[in-house]
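JOB MANIFEST
job_type = single_chain_structure
chain_count = 1
residues = 761
[input]
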Amino acid sequence: MPAEPSTERDRVFRFGPFELSEREGELRKSGVRIKLQEQPFRVLVELVANSGKLVSREELRKKLWPVDTFVDFDVGLNSAIRKLRQALNDDADAPRYIETLAKRGYKFVALVADGAAAAQTTSKDSPPGVSISLPSQGTKPAASEETQRKPRRWYWVLAASCALALVIYGGVLAWRRANTTPPVVTEQRITANPSEAPITGAVVSPDGKYVAYADTTGVYIRHIDTGETRPLQLPDGFNAVPTSWFPDGTHLLLSSGEALYWFGRINPGLIPSLWKVSLLGGSPQKLVENASGGTVSPDGSKIAFLRGEAMLSREIWVMDNDGSNPHKFVEASRPGDSVMMGDGTTNQPYMGVFFPGVAWSPDGSHVAYIRRFVAASSGTLEDKYSLETVGVIGGAPKVLKVSTQLLPVVRWAADGRLVYGYRDNPDSERMDYGVWWIRVNQRSGESAGKEVQLTKGPGMLGGLSVTADAKRIILWRDNLSPAVFLTDMDSQTGHLARPRRLTLDENPSMVTDWTLDSRAVLFVSNRNGGTYKLFRQDIDRAMPEVLVEGRGIVLPRVSPDGTEVLYLAGYNPENPGQPISLMAVPLAGGPPREVLQMSNVAAILCTRSPSKICLLATTKRLFAFDPKDGKLEPFSAADGPPFANWSISPDGSLLALVYRGSSHKITFVTVSDNTKREVELKETLLAGMDWAADSKTLYVTAMATNNSPVVLGVEPNGQQSILLEGDRATRYWWVMPSPDGRYWALEAITGANNVWMVENF
């Protein structure tokens, strides 16, 4: 018995590059389907069907939110509109599609073509999308049965031609997909933390509903779609960073006491440990000590982690999810070894090789990690990173990429894509990174496709994570950078006064010296054009002047007579061993001149007249040099163990040394007879070391035992005092007194870190 015909009317709306089919429940952009949940889709149909008209919130509530549901209508509608704007790439402030009429409703403002299809008769037995015509009652077929039996060669020729055309068209489409660069996706900001509370870690829950993040005030759980945020209840004084979720979505892996990474520099001190905590309550459970960067395997049975401090770990370990059965399965080369780079270049010496990040493959058989090669010249700006994979049961690592443009963040998505951070513009010296991915074979650990850029944006990537269905990426951007501040001594308290900002620019500004008249500071910055230039700025002015243009300019210092600025130029991050130039430029104006060329130069510093000593440091020793002719000779006062930091007094009588591995001790050396005296500190030393003009006090930056930044005054006789203490959101990296002793220039790390999201990547 023939099936009864059915009728169905499909409303199809077209606007811009979009097509909306009500019956199919689909939104397409240029033919590509865009995934929308049911409620946002229904809202869009209602708005588009009434384009140009106000659709009130009350109308939407009555039509789309039945009264017997327990859904918060305001939250639900706001979430639906937000998702629609994301799908349409629309802007609430400058709407092209959906305009908000405050307290009234919404209006669809784009031009809409209503392609509503007429009711068409279909057979219930016909394949979907195939229509048939039924003859009216009493009519006869137009052709006789005999005619229908005749062979129709033209039909088969036409059918074959159509099939061939479809094959060719499909091949063209496949070629275009393979050879067309996908568009860069826009990141959506999830948090809005100010500079007083920068985010230090963030991971997304497996189901993609929540993000756990830490800032300098605590750990928080935030609902991504609604923005509802609540603190994670932790014991007082328990400072931790979330590093991974467990698959059940109710437990977090935390790293407590982990060294924070501030603008590419380590804040050493505390020994990290990994903890498991329930979101439902209860005390954190310690899993392992001397461990950081933990990540839980996809099935929740294992935890991979770094042994020791993050960024300075030399081993990757794995253990059971309760902390039992820990064992090492990847080890870095020893410091000082010559390391064969994975890009096929010749062996190059490095100060150290470390593991700053690790990630599981979707099936748990491999891990991906970043291997960090610390360049032999510690005073330069960049290290080299290698993206690698290795089987958990062992085997030779597979090197996927080696570059100074990589970042120590990596995650392996469930669909086989390895997601990592990479610098947007290799020709720029700005630290702006995007998210990239490459497909990787889980069985072999080798790449199975080309690299694809997913996003780009300002600032570094502090970390990233991916949902279990590979639909959402959560990343947090590290926009902390150094700025120059000024302060002076409070005569009543004997402490440094509250600093005021001198460099009014968000780009990095790294101070290194004063002019001899104490009226201006010297610093390098990449604020103009993305490459580092040498600037001078008067302390009573808001804008600096450029002294030297160029690329790779670092570490400017004033000559003993105060007439020239010495600086390093020409550093090549891809070849740290390549000789770089020590240059000199007159402060009064004039072209730069080359003083000498040398490899692995880490720093320079000169005394002040009448002393005429200028010192140059390599990774192994100090040399005295003549700033006029570049003549070099070893500086014997520094002979001894390898040192990590140093400074010579303005009168040339004392040398301050911090030996490697000794972050709580300063060794003072009398230059005339090489006698030494050690001064112990409770605080952990950072990078800043510069002398007072009278050569009696060394000013240093450090971290106090409570993890707050401090500026110390240390005398060779052992006397020491805290002159300035900041909060947890600030880092003092360098302190430099003026020649007249009235002011101190501070290089402080500041900025706002926040969490961002990428959907449907």
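[summary]
The domain at 189-479 is CATH 2.130.10.10 (Methylamine Dehydrogenase; Chain H).
The chain has a mean pLDDT of 83.
exit_status = 0
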